[in-house]
Write a structure and sequence with these properties.
- The chain is α+β, with helices and mostly antiparallel strands and about 160 residues long.
- The chain has one domain: Nucleoside Triphosphate Pyrophosphohydrolase (Alpha-Beta Complex), CATH 3.90.79.
- Helix content is about 15%, strand content about 35%.
- The protein is built from 3 helices and 7 strands; from the N terminus they run E-E-E-E-H-E-E-E-H-H.
- Strands 1, 2, 3, 4, 5, 6 and 7 form a 7-stranded mixed β-sheet that branches.
- The protein is globular.
Length: about 160
Amino acid sequence: MTGHDKENVNVSVSTLITKDNQVLLEKRQHAHGAGTWGPPTGHPDFGEGPEQTAIRETKEETGITISDVKFRAVTNDVFEAEHEHHVTIWMEAMHVSGEPRLAAPKEESEVGWFAWDTLPEPLFLPFAHLIEGKTYPSSNAKDTIGAAVEIPDIPVAETVEPDTK
């Protein structure tokens, strides 16, 4: 190191929740990306998987209940102004019940449903990256996630039986 403390990379979980061709967004405040619009986002608690984080954070921040939580993608998000680096795990979920409300006013100033063709500006950096296709796996990749983790055929060395004569 060059005299600097080691910088950390944070893990975040963001959840896309749609209803009637609209997406649930909140305007962030008092956190990185303050003043920008993005889906419910938070950090996993110790031992918590991304699905549980998505359910908990969505309920805590918006009062919405979700189900059928599934992995969608990962974005690599460097907030230059705040000098923060986040790797964001993107999940998607079904809306089960509830109307959006400011359940965490220290974290957000507005929350609501927005049509995909009239998203509010400015967008939260990880959300912009997702929309732009700057994801892992790449949204332009021809390979599917399954293909990315398939184990290739590994040639097996021919075995020779020992001579027992």
